[in-house]
Amino acid sequence: MQYRTIHVDASRSYDIHIGKGLLTDVARLIRPLVGECRLAVITDSNVNALHGERLMQVLENDGYNVVKYVIPAGEASKCAENLLAFLNFLALEQITRSDAVIAFGGGVVGDLGGLSASLFLRGVKYIQVPTTLLAAVDSSVGGKTAIDIPAGKNLVGSFYQPVMVCCDTELMDTLPAEIYRDGCAEVIKYGMILDGELYKVLHEIPFDRESVVARCVEIKRDVVQQDEFDNGVRGLLNFGHTFGHAIEKLSNFAVSHGEAVAKGMVIASRIAPLCGMCDVADELSALLVEYGFDITCGYNADEIYNALLADKKRRGGTIAVVLPRAIGECILVNMPLDDLNVLLKKVLS
Ligand code: GLY
Hints:
The structure is a single chain. A 7-stranded mixed beta sheet has the order 1-2-9-6-5-3-4, with helices on both faces. It folds into 2 domains: about 5-175, Rossmann fold (3-Layer(aba) Sandwich); about 175-345, Up-down Bundle (Dehydroquinate synthase-like, alpha domain). Helix 3 (about 80-90) packs across helix 4 and helix 10 runs antiparallel to helix 11 (about 280-290). A hairpin with a 2-residue loop joins strand 7 and strand 8. The protein is α/β, with parallel strands linked by helices. The termini are far apart. It has helices at about 25-35, 45-60, 80-90, 105-120, 135-140, 175-195, 195-200, 210-225, 240-250, 255-270, 280-290, 300-310, 335-345, and strands spanning about 5-10, 15-20, 40-45, 65-70, 100-105, 125-130, 145-150, 150-160, 165-170, 315, 320-325, 330-335. Bound molecules: glycine. Glycine binds near residues 142, 230 and 237.
């Protein structure tokens, strides 16, 4: 089977395989990494209904003893209760340090599965098998794992790299349009922050999935290799996210991550010219609208400001904001909260 492989050199080195129909090859690909072992698959109710049986067959036909744990689909599942329940499941199933976890799903499953793998027995191997565009280009790569707690999204987590990522782009054919579009916001983000050529390609809708996913993964790989533990340049990946997370939280997650990031990128782009940078807001807004995003914020400046005070990118009296200098070039600005408050009032009045 033809697929692309992107190698990541972080605290753990691993390959990310990307290709159409790759699920069939998962067992063969993981064998050199995990050997003879038991596998614990974590997935969600939607993915399980569509593809769960096929993954089990692929693994079992290759001789693996596999157990499966299914969580309800949706962001609400990325919680402490499910983390503990899955850890307990791993213990009851007598998963050992020589066994491995497979996170088969979107960002929720990947984050919860990865965090569980990092905690169980102080760390067991895990494999990411992303099934959404968003997970393929972002959450399955780079080793960030987390759950949400009542005070905020992703506030409890770890950096824990998988031993492999196996991305079958064909699985995305079954995604509802709005879930696929969520991933498009992250793809547009990569074009905006670091690759003007990729951004140009994205005007062709629909874009070529394999090559665009591979390019986004390469960009993320390069960033993660420079700053695995998120103390510098990795912050660029948060373009649109500071405001986006605030919008998700204010909407009680009725606004999806991708929609919120799209709105957040527009807010950041409107702030940029007020800080002496170029104005790409109209160009970016037009592209996002072409992809079907509603780019209106839906909240006023005070609501956004108060919501982002709980953001983990806040350091005392400042917060890290990513602003575009041009299409394909963003910079991280550590902004005093008071200044941001004033700027938000200007762009959201
Ligand atoms: N999703 C942002 C990061 O992985 O750093």
